[in-house]
Every structure is written in C-alpha cells, then in structure tokens.
Amino acid sequence: ANGGSYFEPTILADVPRSAKVSKEETFGPLAPLFRFKDEAEVIELANDTEFGLASYFYARDLSRVFRVAEALEYGMVGINTGLISNEVAPFGGVKASGLGREGSKYGIEDYLEIKYLCLGI
Questions:
Q1: Bridge partner list, 30
Q2: Sequence-ordered list of residues with C-beta below 8 angstroms from that of 104, at least 6 positions apart, any chain
Q3: In the chain, N or C terminus with fewer CB closer than 10 Å?
Q4: In 3D, which of 75, 84, 79 has the Cα closest to residue 64?
Q5: pLDDT of the chain along its 121 residues, tens only?
Q6: Residue 93 CB coordination number (10 Å)
Q7: DSSP H helical segments within 28-88, as ranges?
Q8: Which of the listed CATH numbers 3.30.450.20, 3.40.50.720, 3.40.309.10, 3.40.50.1110 matches domain 36-111?
Q9: Residue 84 in contact with residue 76, Cβ under 8 Å?
Q10: Could you tell me if 30 and 10 are in contact, meaning their C-beta atoms sit under 8 angstroms apart?
C-alpha cells in the first residue's frame, strides 16, 4: 500500500474454516470473519489452532464475558477492546505462541532461580 511494505487494514468475509488464516498466527491488519451458530462453535473455531498469543471478542453479558474468556486458549484476551498491551500487563502466549511472560511483575520470573529451604528443628 502506498508504495511501502505495508498493506491497508483488510476485512475478509465468509472465510472458510479450512483457510490458512484460521490456523496460522497472522501479524498484520487483517480481520477474517467466520460464520458460526452459537457460542460453543465459535470457541471451538477460535481454539482450533496450535497458536495462542492473543484473542479478542465483544460481549455485553458479563457472564458470557467470563465464560468465553476462560474457554479461550490464549495468553491474552481483549474483551470489548483491541488495545490489550501496556507496561503493567503480562505479555505472552500459550501453545506454540510462547512460554512465559514479558513485562509486568511476572516477566522477571524467567530470570529468577528458586531455592527451596527446609529447616528441621
């Protein structure tokens, strides 16, 4: 776009479950839209990948917010927002998207050695 190595934000409609974008970790301004029948189906679709860095969804019902957020197999979940990264949030994924966290108080844990002491008296 515009002669650079970037491309404009793109929406893909009616994407089939077999599309690469449904299985791969896409970094870019791409929003694939999938059809689904119910909450269980969309959670299954979202989790049907080896990756798990971040996921996003919108909901009004607070019980649905917690139910869906807990069911999603991702290290970070944006609920009613697309801006989930900040300096105090633990950044990192699950599955093939990484192990451990960067930032926040949890980011230091990968650099610490834990020692167990047991003193008999």
A1: 10
A2: 87, 88, 89, 90, 91
A3: C
A4: 79
A5: 566 778 899 999 999 999 999 999 988 899 999 999 999 999 999 999 999 999 999 999 999 999 999 999 999 999 999 999 988 899 999 999 988 888 888 888 877 888 888 888 8
A6: 20
A7: 39-47, 62-71
A8: 3.40.309.10
A9: yes
A10: yes
